[in-house]
Amino acid sequence: MRYGPPAQMNVQLRGRDLLTLQNYTADELKYLLWMASDLKQRIKNKGEYLPLMQGKSLAMIFEKRSTRTRLSTETGFALLGGHPSFLTTQDIHLGTNESLTDTARVLSSMTNAILARVYKHNDLELMTKEATIPIINGLSDLYHPLQILADYLTLQEHYGGLKGLTITWIGDGNNVLHSIMISAAKLGMHLRIATPKGFEPDLRITKITEQYSKEHGTKLLLTTDPLEAADGANVLITDTWISMGQEEEKKERLKAFQGYQITMQTAKSAASNWTFLHCLPRKPEEVDDEVFYSPQSLVFQEAENRKWTIMAVMVSLLTDYSPQLQKPTF
């Protein structure tokens, strides 16, 4: 990893919620990535013990199953000396057996933060109004901010910086894409999006993205042609075509997404230094084995970085700790 000159950022995130990256400035996003890099270098590479969460507890509400979000949060929070408490739909029924208001207030009295992986983004917004502790979006129908922080850390590590990169999304206009859309331009990245007709990203989020692109001087393309989107791309990204809760649409979606599989033929249109990302789990129809297991695929580094970025979020929202290493070049 290349580092720039020593620098401090006038950023204070303690006590904040993280529902969407839209609410975070460019400097705040860079700070979170800097924090993640700092923790990874000090703990993983240098073997330091940093009990920054000692005496703190985290409530983890999961309406949807997960591998990476659950494991990265539980192991990361524990590695920092904290106590994560995992709550499934068998333990807690948001808005069913107990109102969201009451749940938020009870958990606020017993834990230091709530990470919730939910179906409805509105549930998170209601919880932030009632809770007195930070609420962190572990995934909702609109956004997946923790995933995108891991993606950006992975790209920063690989390319040595983010500014000027061209990201190409080929697939569904879903929550992962939405989180890229409302953050990429802030970090100076261009965005090219290919989705089938009828599966475009949310129109409101598209309008916000267009505004961000103008403000930050980046390029934005929306198309239905995967090869057009892949032209000149540094990063090719896709995700599941059938999210949890959309199983009944499987037949229709598989038909609509014909021609959207990322292959080496797709990569021929990309830049010579192209890489591939996928938040996992992956299905072969989304990307073939040749790309997925190629040297250009960063998916397993990306998965590991889920841990370091969620740790960075926790440390930033719950403590006054500042990164000790030099700030990376963004």
From TrEMBL:
Enzyme Commission number(s): 2.1.3.3
Q: In which pathway does it act?
A: Nitrogen metabolism; urea cycle; L-citrulline from L-ornithine and carbamoyl phosphate: step 1/1
Where in the cell is the protein located? Mitochondrion matrix
- Which stretches make up the Aspartate/ornithine carbamoyltransferase carbamoyl-P binding domain? 16-157
Which family is annotated?
Belongs to the aspartate/ornithine carbamoyltransferase superfamily. OTCase family.
Q: Native species of this protein?
A: Falco tinnunculus (Common kestrel)
Q: Name one GO molecular function term.
A: amino acid binding
Pfam family membership, one: OTCace_N
Just give the chief location class. Answer: mitochondrion
What is the name listed in the Swiss-Prot or TrEMBL entry for this protein? ornithine carbamoyltransferase
Q: How does it assemble?
A: Homotrimer.
Q: Name one GO cellular component term.
A: mitochondrial matrix
- List residues of the Aspartate/ornithine carbamoyltransferase Asp/Orn-binding domain: 163-316
Gene3D superfamilies given in the database record: Aspartate/ornithine carbamoyltransferase
Q: Name one GO biological process term.
A: citrulline biosynthetic process
Which NCBIfam families does the record cross-reference, listed alphabetically?
Answer: orni_carb_tr, PRK00779.1
What keyword terms does UniProt attach to this protein? Answer: Amino-acid biosynthesis, Arginine biosynthesis, Mitochondrion, Transferase, Transit peptide, Urea cycle
